Amino acid sequence: MPEPTTPPGLLLATDLSARCDRPLERAKQLADELSVPLVTLTVHEAPQAPGDVLQWMDDDASREREQGARAELAREFATCRFPVSHRFGSGATAGAILDTAANLPDALVITGPSRHDTLGDLLLGSTVEKLARALAQPLLVVRQRMRGPYRSIMVAIDFTPASRLALETAARLFPQARITAFHAHDADILAPDAPPRAEFIRFLDGCALDLEARTRVTPMIGEGDPASQLARHVVDNNIDLAVFGLHEESALMRLLTGSRSEHLLQEVVCDTLLVRAGEQNEQT
């Protein structure tokens, strides 16, 4: 039985603040383009001030928050052509998203940057990092305004099963996009030796890509610091979406969550799709 070309649904995590407007618009565009249902999850975090906690925990206040959110969401999606449903949570944002995502195991999860909206904080120690390490399904982090469908995609390749899964996922989710499979070579961070183009082609041929998808993929090798190479390619080629295949022990995971993460995430300013490979994927 062939794999489906689109996810059966989308899960948008939003607190309905202005910083979530961009993820919301992208979620609406994807749900319409892919003709899939959208589930919104609104999480009300506990206040930081101790004096506000009792009011936040009050049942009447909780009902009022949910009623207000339902009314706002009803207005937001009133004219949409795809099915929409709404869920509500409270407490820690990452935990609420993970709990909801566990009941929607095949949904693409969509969120925005961290609360402080600084790219240096995007992964390291943030909600997004917790999700990237724990979610079974892909995580789309939206930073840019929605100006149309994703048409130009970069997939970071480090020749691991995780990056193979990332490439396959990008080709499956976005069948109209052109894709650059970009290997940023640094012997200290990624592969021990920069592979020749023939080896790169063999890697691509080993991916589960049909003929049409394969024709949309262009291999490219950049030599030097991976963070700089990836960031430069995004800017120079007007990339809409950067895709990273992650595993707990992968070089790309270390690059994104290690000491050099701030540089990478300050420079790679397009939307980001994080595809986490499980143990089974890593062993294939």
Q: How confident is the prediction overall: mean pLDDT?
A: 79
Assign the CATH class of the largest domain: Alpha Beta
- CATH topology tier name of the largest domain: Rossmann fold
CATH superfamily of the largest domain: HUPs
Secondary-structure element order, as H and E?
A: EHEHHEHEHEEHEHHEHEHHEH
Major beta sheet, strand line-up: 3-2-1-4-5-10-9-6-7-8
Helix content: 25-40%
Q: What's the N-to-C terminus distance?
A: 19 Å
Nearest-angstrom radius of gyration?
19 Å
**Domains (count):** 2
**Strand-residue proportion:** 15-25%
Query: Judging by the overall fold, what is the CATH architecture of the largest domain?
Result: 3-Layer(aba) Sandwich
Structural class determined from secondary elements: alpha/beta
| Unreliable residue runs | 51-57, 116-122, 259-263
What labels would you give this structure?
single chain; 284 residues; Rossmann fold; 2 domains; 10-stranded mixed β-sheet; globular
What do these coordinates show?
There is one protein chain. With 284 residues, the chain is of the alpha/beta class. The chain folds into two domains: 10-141, 3-Layer(aba) Sandwich (Rossmann fold), CATH 3.40.50.620; 152-283, Rossmann fold, CATH 3.40.50.620. Helix content is 39%, strand content 20%. The chain has helices at residues 21-34, 53-57, 59-76, 93-102, 127-134, 161-173, 197-205, 211-215, 226-236, 251-257, 261-267, 279-283, and strands at residues 10-14, 38-44, 84-90, 108-111, 139-141, 152-156, 178-185, 217-223, 241-246, 271-276. A ten-stranded mixed beta sheet has the order 3-2-1-4-5-10-9-6-7-8, with helices on both faces. Strand 1 (10-14), helix 1 and strand 2 form a beta-alpha-beta unit. Helix 4 (93-102) runs parallel beside helix 5 (127-134) and helix 10 packs across helix 11 (261-267). The longest helix is centred in the first third of the chain and has 18 residues, at 59-76. It starts with 9 loop residues before the first strand and ends with a helix.
